[in-house]
Specification:
Layout lengths: L6 H23 L26 H10 L10 H12 L11 H4 L48 H10 L8 H10 L3 H9 L6 H13 L7 H6 L7 H12 L9 H4 L51 H4 L16 H9 L18
Helix pairs in contact: 3-7, 3-8, 5-8, 10-13
The structure holds heme C (2 copies).
């Protein structure tokens, strides 16, 4: 028989009971724990159209730079599945973070901080990148230092990153298999309800390749539908012709129109020295489309916005232009903004 509790022990027990009541009370006022299955996504019965007809100046550029592999051609049902996966917070360990948390539609699939928060509030080591026009990066290599060989290979890395989403591939597959809305979406996209990480990566990449901007003022000018102001025209001229300080290459020599993206970053080199591509202290740049509205630029996120770039705040060389042309350059860069991609419902969060 256990000895009955001494008065002193009873006092302790009472204290414990009070404490646990108090803790329970606190808990009830906290946020409810994340349920295993949140709301189902709202997706149209027939998938949206992601196979948009692009204007000629963009279609021509795409023909020479498209990184779509023959085993993962873009389909409407593939991109529609990719959209759901992209915004699904169940793809992170504590179900709080999705790809869309750090690549927000309203922020041109970038975010508005220098470093982003992962599922446990830890910060990423580099600035998030805009996903606009990733399809036009000819080499297909992804991340600032190009460490992912393809968009498909890239897609599984944030999911397994211990700071970002924190799952293993096996956990990822089990999560997706456990959610009731996926079998029908996989059936439509891949002709089978079987889930595996390769298909998850393919669908995510299809959605990302559909993020193409072609409805900016720049595009309307190139189609002969509108004209540049004098400042915008001068800005374009400087962008295309003037060597960017120090080097012999113009802005356009590195950020190639019409998507203002290139696949062969020859530099510039970052200060302070950092490993970068092949350990050579150089970094890629994504598409400059929508850069006029984006916050925190360059791989360290040290430049708050494009206006600050020409204020002597240059973390890398080759970003220097004569003072009288600063306003013209900004006017030109602002013509690259496509407002529709940040609002188009087919790219929006279906869980909202
Ligand atoms: C916690 C924030 C965070 C989450 C979540 C996240 N990303 Fe990112 N993403 C980043 C950061 C930061 C970078 C740049 C990292 C680097 O280069 O080291 C990046 C880079 C990328 C790139 C490279 C773009 C380029 O032009 O090279 C792609 C593509 C991408 N993310 C897609 C995704 C996908 C798909 C998901 C979901 C499966 C995702 N991201 C989840 C923060 C995040
Ligand atoms: C030698 C090639 C080169 C030249 C010339 C060059 N850039 Fe860049 N640019 C880059 C690279 C590479 C990065 C990313 C570097 C990094 O983050 O460390 C970049 C980054 C940028 C960014 C930030 C992009 C982002 O997503 O954060 C802007 C804006 C930009 N460049 C505009 C310009 C303008 C305007 C000019 C002309 C005055 C110019 N660049 C000249 C290679 C170049």
């Amino acid at each position: 028989m256990p000895k009955s509790h001494s008065p002193r022990m009873k006092k302790h027990l009472l204290l414990l009971a009070t404490l646990s009541l108090f803790l329970q009370h606190c808990k009830s006022t906290e946020e409810a724990p994340n349920p295993v299955e949140t709301a189902s996504p709202r997706v149209p019965e027939t998938a949206d159209n992601y196979l948009t007809t692009l204007p000629a100046h963009i279609q021509t550029a795409l023909a020479g730079t498209d990184n779509t592999p023959t085993n993962n051609l873009l389909t409407n049902d593939g991109a529609a599945l990719g959209r759901v996966l992209f915004y699904d917070k169940n793809l992170s360990l504590n179900r709080t973070v999705s790809c869309g948390s750090c690549h927000k539609q309203a922020a041109s699939f970038d975010d508005e901080v220098a470093l982003s928060k992962g599922f446990n509030n830890a910060l990423t080591t580099r600035n998030s990148m805009s996903l606009l026009n990733v399809r036009f990066y000819r080499s297909g290599k992804m991340f600032w230092d190009e460490r992912a060989a393809t968009l498909e290979k890239q897609a599984l890395q944030p999911i397994q990153n211990p700071l970002e989403m924190g799952l293993t591939l096996a956990e990822l597959e089990n999560r997706v298999k456990s959610l009731s809305y996926y079998p029908a979406l996989f059936q439509k996209a891949f002709g089978s309800t079987t889930v595996d990480s390769i298909k998850i990566a393919k669908a995510l990449a299809q959605f990302e390749r559909s993020l193409v901007t072609y409805r900016s003022k720049y595009d309307r000018v190139k189609q002969g539908l509108e004209t540049f102001t004098a400042a915008e025209a001068r800005g374009e001229q400087v962008f295309l012709a003037t060597p960017g300080g120090g080097g012999a290459i113009s802005c356009g020599g590195c950020h190639t129109p019409p998507m203002f993206i290139t696949s062969a970053p020859a530099g510039p080199f970052a200060f302070p020295l950092e490993a970068g591509i092949n350990g050579q202290n150089r970094f890629k740049s994504g598409s400059l489309r929508n850069v006029g509205t984006r916050k925190f630029l360059f791989h360290q996120g040290t430049i708050p916005d494009v206006n600050s770039l020409f204020n002597g705040q240059r973390p890398v060389p080759a970003h220097n232009i004569p003072a009288p042309d600063v306003a013209n350059m900004i006017a030109f860069l602002n013509t690259l903004t496509d407002e529709s991609i940040t609002q188009d419902p087919k790219f929006s969060d279906p869980f909202n």
